[in-house]
Specification:
Layout: H1 2-28, H2 31-35, H3 41-51, E1 55-56, E2 59-60, H4 67-78, H5 82-106, H6 111-122, H7 125-130, H8 137-156, H9 160-174, H10 179-191, H11 199-228, H12 238-244, H13 248-255, H14 263-270, H15 299-316, H16 318-332, H17 346-372, H18 380-398, H19 410-421
Antiparallel strand pairs: 1-2
Helix pairs in contact: 1-5, 1-6, 3-4, 5-6, 5-8, 6-19, 8-9, 8-18, 9-10, 9-11, 10-18, 12-15, 13-16, 16-18, 17-19, 18-19
């Protein structure tokens, strides 16, 4: 009993720290929550409450996935000021991320490891920075670690509730960040190779999870069919995101290091898509300026055409495309934040260096863990974390990337770091009582998935 009280005391201290740190960060940068809406999530939420349509301007849209605007719209409907509502949910989701990291860690290791992993998540620079912006990273991160936790529970003790919760969570995560659909497919595929569960039984479970996922996203797909004339699974943003990292401007930037690449110049070229039906046309060149419109495209058609333009430039510049893959993966995993402006202040420069040092240290510890304790990556939560890392890296190797987009992967990295810093045998852990197993389908919560 005394041990349990002591454990809860330390956990409460970590959660209180997570709460206070996020309150301080949100409070200090409170104006950032209301000042900008870089991805138009708030604009969509306003339209949802005002006239009941998921739209940008006067037109229905699927350019952004629906989960985050729906969350924002609830605050607007309740009459809560935007900054207070977004700050509040980001603080809540941040604390839940810390708690879920702790719970996942307990399934494979000891209390000290779980507490250290949770404490490191408390102060992650990316997660703290994104908590002050009206963007999806905070929500995507809590959904990502929740998905891993539920998948572990499902493996340990398959029942109807765990299957439903897992499928619904994966569906909601995909409607927040479509990359989670790739993770869901890969994770269920990997679980098929678990030798602890007969493959036929795991296939049945996976099919049920898939059905729950499909039921979860069905309203969105049906809505898109009705409003846009096409059953869009995720968003109509894919073509734009693919083209953003595969176009003449970006390839020129790769080939000429002294050149610059900005979204504003890129967007001006995209807005000229209505002057030609030819994907090889140089929409960013001087000849395109002032050309008359010859075609009108709706959102679906613009997305398709963006894919065609991107695929054309990829096929024409395969070497630069290969280099762009390296650049995008490098941006995703960069330890150093981007330079904010050409006249960067000294304090901003020092802060960027500090963040870079933090992540270089983290990557070094994770690398050491991978070399010295590679077998621990086979424990179910760690393997699912690796699958998530692989899914995000593969997607952002082709589509546009930035270091903020690795936010959902941070809990796995900190868990690996905690395992490295506090060496405890995986088999010594598993103290999470909620993950106790029972019944014919139960397996030990610390089992490893052997593939092959």
């Amino acid at each position: 009993m005394k041990t349990l009280v002591k454990q809860n005391k330390w956990l409460l201290l970590v959660l209180l720290t997570a709460l206070l740190v996020r309150i301080a960060v949100v409070g200090f940068q409170f104006e950032s929550l209301s000042a900008t809406d870089p991805d138009s999530y708030r604009a969509i939420a306003v339209n949802l409450v005002a006239d009941g349509t998921y739209s940008l301007g006067a037109d229905p849209t699927a350019f952004r996935p629906p989960v985050y605007p729906l969350i924002l719209s609830l605050g607007i409907y309740l009459g809560i000021p935007h900054g207070i509502w977004v700050g509040g949910i980001h603080i809540l989701f941040g604390v839940l991320t810390v708690l879920l990291t702790y719970r996942v860690a307990l399934t494979i290791s000891s209390e000290p490891v779980a507490l250290l992993a949770a404490a490191l998540v408390c102060i992650d620079p990316i997660l703290l920075h994104q908590s002050i912006l009206t963007m999806t990273e905070t929500t995507a991160t809590v959904l990502g670690i929740l998905a891993i936790w539920l998948l572990v529970r499902m493996v340990n003790n398959t029942n109807k509730l765990s299957i439903v919760l897992t499928g619904v969570t994966l569906g909601v995560a995909g409607l927040c960040r479509p990359t989670f659909f790739v993770f869901a497919a890969l994770a269920l595929l990997v679980l098929m190779f678990s030798k602890t569960v007969p493959w036929k039984e795991q296939l049945r479970t996976n099919l049920l999870v898939g059905c729950c996922l499909l039921v979860t996203i069905a309203p969105w797909v049906i809505r898109n069919q009705i409003s846009l004339g096409r059953p869009v699974l995720a968003t109509t943003h894919g073509g734009y995101t693919l083209l953003l990292g595969n176009n003449p401007l970006f390839y020129e930037y790769l080939d000429q290091p002294l050149s610059t690449y900005g979204a504003q110049h890129f967007d001006r070229g995209v807005r000229r898509f209505n002057i030609s039906e030819n994907p090889s046309y140089d929409f960013w060149g001087p000849r395109a300026i002032g050309q008359p419109k010859v075609i009108s495209r709706n959102e679906i058609e613009r997305d398709r055409f963006a894919y065609e333009v991107a695929k054309y430039h990829i096929s024409q510049q395969p070497k630069l495309f290969a280099r762009s893959i390296l650049r995008r993966v490098g941006k995703l995993w960069s330890p150093l934040p981007n330079v904010g402006s050409s006249n960067e202040s000294t304090s901003r420069f020092i802060l960027r260096l500090a963040v870079g040092g933090w992540y270089l240290t983290l990557f070094a510890v994770v690398f050491w863990f991978s070399v010295r304790q590679s077998n621990k990556w086979l424990a179910t939560p760690m393997l699912l974390g690796i699958v998530m890392i692989l899914a995000f890296t593969l997607v952002h190797a082709v589509y546009w990337s930035d270091m903020r987009m690795r936010a959902p992967l941070m809990p796995t990295l900190y868990l690996a770091a905690a395992l490295a810093l506090i060496p405890v045998s995986v088999e010594d852990g598993g103290s999470d009582g909620d993950l106790s197993t029972s019944g014919d389908n139960a397996t030990h919560p610390n089992h490893k998935i052997s593939c092959g």
